[in-house]
Amino acid sequence: MESQERSVERPYTDEIETKDMRENSFEPKIVVFACNWCSYAGADTAGVGRLQYPPNVRLIRVMCSGRVRPAFVLKAFELGADGVMWSGCHFGDCHYVFGNYRAVEQFEITKNLVKMLGIEKERLRLEWVSAAEGGRWAELIKEFVEDVKKVGPSPLRKVQGFKSSMVQGKSNKT
Ligand code: FES
After folding, report:
1. Ligand 1 site-directed mutation target among 38, 126, 128, most atoms within 8 Å of CB
2. Mind listing the pLDDT tens digit for each residue in 96-146?
3. Ligand 1 center–CA 46 separation, angstroms
4. Within a 10 A sphere around the Cβ of 167, how many other Cβ atoms?
5. How many domains does the chain have?
6. Which residues sit with their C-beta closer than 6 Å to ligand 1?
C-alpha cells in the first residue's frame, strides 16, 4: 500500500533515480598536458595554496604546449580518457616564443580528428594558465570535470577492443 502511494506521488521515480545515479556516480578520467614553465607551475601554485580541485586529473608535463601532437590526445582517448585538456603559457610568455601558436594549430587539427571519431567537442579543451594563476587552474579543472560529467563516459569505452585496463587503473604489465 505504502509503495503504491509512493509510486502515485512520484511517477517515473525509477527512471529519474537511475539517471541521477548515473550522473552522480560517473567520475571522468581527465588527462591534462601542461607545459613545464607555466601551466604545470600553475598547478603547483594551486597545490601550494591548498586550492581544492577534483582529483580526476592525470597531469602530463611537457616542455611546451607546442610539443603536444594530435597523436598524444588520440592515444589518451584510446587509453580511457573521458576528456583531454591542453594547457600552456599565455601568448607572449612561451619560453620557446612561438610554441603556443604551434599549439593552436595542432589543437585545431586535433579537434577535427576527434570530431571525425565521434567524440564530443566538450571533451577537448585548450587553455592558457600562467605559473601565478593557481586559482584559475583550480577553477578550470572544476569546470572541465563538470562539463565532461554532463556528456558522460567517452563513447570510445563502448568500442570493442578498447583498452579498459587503463580505465580501471590496472597496469598493462603482466
Ligand atoms: S613554454 Fe609554455 S607554452 Fe611554450
Report:
1. 38
2. 999 999 999 999 999 999 999 999 999 999 999 999 999 999 999 999 999
3. 18
4. 17
5. 1
6. 35, 37-38, 64-66, 88-89, 94-96, 99-100
